[in-house]
């Protein structure tokens, strides 16, 4: 076979593999003509996601899991939610990718190549809970604006990288440092090059924690493109919006970072608890920091039926931002009575915790299994969702 023919045939074979079926008249396909079947991107193939995931939006991509898909102790890529605010960067070149540390509170700006970051600093791996600040939004009353996330905008993968603290020590930061803000390579939906889709950050104390990573691996492999390849800030336990994907610049600020989606009402909650639906003045709204205590039943899947007289073994995960989950309870009578069940210690700080239990039902009929987590400061999950 001539080389040209061979290249063409292997090209057709890889197109067929992408389509998942034979291209019957492939021999007639004019060279260079794109296949229509590959133009409308199938998000599940594009991002290697499980077909059971729910696509909430395609511009930008927002995809969430269902509760039963989040049963793994360590979330694999195929069940990890995607929350994008802009367009995923294209044409990433590992040889030229760099991270610049700048801002009012550095002695002098400094730029690192990927290679330098990987070789200069010790590596750490942590399992870190990342929950979108908007997770659960579809149940808010009154309704909140934005994607109507149900329960699946949470993940807990392992992240490997270097400590942001080690990088900042190497750069040299001044006493003025109060906040860090990330900048990234994704682009604004409008196409305007001067606009950033999102640029958030965390107070300097969070930036300097052991577990705050500049990561280059997820679950032991290169970070998948949708989750921030090749470099991502990971600040577990905080709204995942603080964990900047496609990270290429990080500013050490002498003020609370004022990047895109840091100001106005986005990612803010009332500083003090209020009754559901109550109006709160702007100055009484605070930036969300540590995420509140929460839990999710991942087994069985909603709608399970059980033989009469058999106990229901259930399990799931619970997490509490910077805190740990200290106890779990479940109810089969719509919250009238609660009983304890077990909850394990986290794999490391800021990782979610496995709970499990066994419920007995008095007679045949319809039941709902509810669970409730309590954190190490005694805060329990509220029965009524916040407005
Ligand atoms: N550069 C960049 N970083 C980003 C975002 C983004 O749109 N661009 N989205 C943020 C938000 S709002 C969330 S909830 C998480 C989602 O992370 P994931 O898509 O890896 O699950 O990434 C955060 N980091
Ligand atoms: Mo988010």
UniProtKB/TrEMBL annotation:
<dbReference type="InterPro" id="IPR005066">
    <property type="entry name" value="MoCF_OxRdtse_dimer"/>
</dbReference>
<dbReference type="GO" id="GO:0020037">
    <property type="term" value="F:heme binding"/>
</dbReference>
<dbReference type="Pfam" id="PF00174">
    <property type="entry name" value="Oxidored_molyb"/>
</dbReference>
<keyword id="KW-0560">Oxidoreductase</keyword>
<dbReference type="InterPro" id="IPR014756">
    <property type="entry name" value="Ig_E-set"/>
</dbReference>
<dbReference type="InterPro" id="IPR000572">
    <property type="entry name" value="OxRdtase_Mopterin-bd_dom"/>
</dbReference>
<dbReference type="GO" id="GO:0006790">
    <property type="term" value="P:sulfur compound metabolic process"/>
</dbReference>
<dbReference type="InterPro" id="IPR008335">
    <property type="entry name" value="Mopterin_OxRdtase_euk"/>
</dbReference>
<feature type="domain" description="Moybdenum cofactor oxidoreductase dimerisation">
    <location>
        <begin position="287"/>
        <end position="383"/>
    </location>
</feature>
<dbReference type="InterPro" id="IPR036374">
    <property type="entry name" value="OxRdtase_Mopterin-bd_sf"/>
</dbReference>
<feature type="domain" description="Oxidoreductase molybdopterin-binding">
    <location>
        <begin position="86"/>
        <end position="255"/>
    </location>
</feature>
<keyword id="KW-0479">Metal-binding</keyword>
<keyword id="KW-0500">Molybdenum</keyword>
<dbReference type="Pfam" id="PF03404">
    <property type="entry name" value="Mo-co_dimer"/>
</dbReference>
<protein>
    <submittedName>
        <fullName>Sulfite dehydrogenase (Cytochrome) subunit SorA apoprotein</fullName>
    </submittedName>
</protein>
<dbReference type="GO" id="GO:0030151">
    <property type="term" value="F:molybdenum ion binding"/>
</dbReference>
<dbReference type="GO" id="GO:0008482">
    <property type="term" value="F:sulfite oxidase activity"/>
</dbReference>
<dbReference type="GO" id="GO:0043546">
    <property type="term" value="F:molybdopterin cofactor binding"/>
</dbReference>
